[in-house]
Amino acid sequence: MAEQVRAIRTRQAILSAAAKVFDERGYQAATISEILAAAGVTKGALYFHFQSKEDLAQGVLTAQNEDLLLPSRASKLQEAVDTVMLHTHRLRTNPMVRAGVRLSLDQNAVGLDRSSPFRNWVVTMQELLEKAQAQGELLPHVVPAETADVLVGAYGGVQSMSQAMTDHEDLGRRVNALLRHIMPCIAQPSVLASLHIGEDRAEEVYNEARQLGQDRAEESSSH
Q1: Is residue 69 in a domain?
Q2: At residue 73, does pLDDT exceed 90?
Q3: What is 78-101 written as a DSSP string?
Q4: Cα gap 176→200, rounded to integer Å
Q5: Both 58 and 84 in a single domain?
Q6: Which of 63, 122, 125, 184 is 20 to 30 A from 78, alpha carbon to alpha carbon?
Q7: CATH number at residue 56
Q8: Are residues 98 and 156 in the same domain?
């Protein structure tokens, strides 16, 4: 058991170090040597968990959403908004998420498959929009698959623009503006009036998600 815990901690230390280096240097410029130095582990320990720099990058891309927990909402459109809001807060505060986003948007990352985060986001959004449609929350013309594509693509552009201009300092404002433009085009008026899309929503959702994670961890440890 102790060895297993140690292995998990080592893997996490390597991923955290890789996230830091990828975020600072980008995929192409980052080296295994830099990641080893940042992690404080041996080359053997690193290669036990990850076979290559690409494997490390995929680990970061996957890890960015591993603790993404939100309670189910009665309004599935609000749940979709809150998913965006939670990611927005974590992007500004979580180095793993920031590194994952940088990798997914890094057009110079030759040889790295950057499609999985986008595919996962589109699937999540499409599922929520389909549920919202089934509940009568969406306008008749909305095609969930198309809207999910547009929302994820626009959000990726907003992230990239915010990072370039203010290092994500104004991301909350930009995401609020994005949602204020998109939601009236897809939501029934009665649903639109009840949506919470203000900048302060991101922190509210983050605190709720964090509490949910703590509750589930305590529940698991008590069994």
Answers
A1: no
A2: yes
A3: HHHHHHHHHHHHHHHH-HHHHHHH
A4: 10
A5: no
A6: 63
A7: 1.10.10.60
A8: yes
CA dihedral 193, 162, 94, 156 (to 10 degrees): 70
* 44 and 130, same domain (yes or no): no
Q: What CATH number is given to the structural domain containing 151?
A: 1.10.357.10
Residue 4 is predicted with a pLDDT of 78
197 HSE (CA, 13 A, CB side): 23
pLDDT at 65 over 70: no
Residues 59 and 85 in one domain: no
pLDDT confidence bin for 192, thresholds 50/70/90: very high
193 DSSP assignment: T
| pTM (2 d.p.) | 0.82
Contact 216, 69 (CB under 8 A): yes
- What pLDDT digit, counting tens, does each position of 14-35 carry? 998 998 898 888 888 889 999 9
Residue 187 bridge partners (DSSP): 138
Comparing CA positions, the residue from 56, 61, 64 lying closest to residue 14 is 56
End-to-end CA distance of the chain: 18
